[in-house]
Amino acid sequence: MYDVTAVGELLIDFTPAGLSGQGQPLFEQNPGGAPANVLAALSRLGRRTAFIGKVGQDFFGDYLAGVLAQAQIACDGLLRDPSCRTTLAFVHLDPNGDRSFSFYRNPGADLMLRPEEIPEATVRDCRIFHFGSVSMTGDPARGATRHALELARRAGRLVSYDPNLRLPLWSSPEDARQVILAVLDRVDVLKISEEELTFLTGLTDLEQGARWFFDRAPLQLLLITRGAKGAYGATRRAQASHPAFDVQTIDTTGAGDAFTGAVLHRLLLRGKDPGRLTAEELESDLAYANAAGSLATTRTGAIPALPTEREIQNCLTRTRTLT
Ligand code: ADP
């Protein structure tokens, strides 16, 4: 039995790495893809995890398979496409460490996952099933993601969803919004960023945003990450906020995934329905997940930047919060 199984994209993030002797930009090869990052965050915290997705039969695919194995993520569900290359994403950082992406995916191997390729036992034999929306930007991966979601739902698994909006990968913003919202009726835990709240609901107020989702979907827990402002969480009965930590941020890549992995770890520890969390429990889980997110911004890349339990505990006890 796995603690968490995730389906989705696995790709290369080329992150900025200074200038060459000739003054040309250098990029560092890092493993990327939000669902795999979330699993890596969980594995670092001692959880049993499994990944389902597709990479190319190329050098980058070999590298990514090796990274998953090294992160102790079960990768029986990692398939290789013989004709499509592994997807590449070049990350651009602005002076605040915030990032944007250029994707090389026309199409990429991650989009080639087919519904019949989903290993059913890996989806059924887990405590939490996690997915995102990048694997729903086109077929056949969209159908494969929905099929896995359906299997998880039918097996009675807790379902966690981080849409992780990447607009350049969609044919239009309307298509993105419609496809992202269409699966909400099967989700228990939804994690979005403040920007995604506004994109999906048109609202900026967090409480109004929470009401918008709870009115439309059978959600148990909504989490909204707010960058350096920390995070907000709500169930139907309780809500809480917690600030982020005052760390030396150099690259925010993977911060949201570190946050999500940390939240799922805490939900597994508690072993109760997320919808039954008290405001105090929610606040404590947000503090823990913010510590994980904040620490992830202190190193470059996503998977290499994920913190250990000891680092999170140190941050919680020794680092000031940003207010
Ligand atoms: P996403 O990567 O999904 O957009 P955020 O950027 O909101 O998510 O970051 C997730 C979490 O990481 C935040 O809730 C916060 O705890 C932490 N974090 C992000 N940026 C910073 C920062 N500049 N300083 C401290 N913590 C940060």
Question: Would you write up a description of this structure?
Answer:
Helix 1 packs across helix 8 and helix 8 runs antiparallel to helix 9. Helix content is 36%, strand content 25%. The protein has a single domain, classed as Ribokinase (UDP-N-acetylmuramoyl-L-alanine:D-glutamate ligase), CATH 3.40.1190. It is of the alpha/beta class and 323 residues long. It contains ten helices and 13 strands. The chain is globular. Bound molecules: adenosine-5'-diphosphate. Adenosine-5'-diphosphate binds next to helix 8 and helix 9. The site of adenosine-5'-diphosphate has 19 residues, from helix 8 and helix 9.
CATH architecture: 3-Layer(aba) Sandwich
Shape: globular
CATH class: Alpha Beta
Number of E strands? 13
Overall pLDDT level: 95
Give the strand order, joined by hyphens, for the main sheet.
5-4-1-8-9-10-11-12-13
| SS-based class | alpha/beta
Q: Which parts are unreliable, with pLDDT below 50 for 5 consecutive residues or more? A: none
Looking at CATH, the homologous superfamily is: Ribokinase
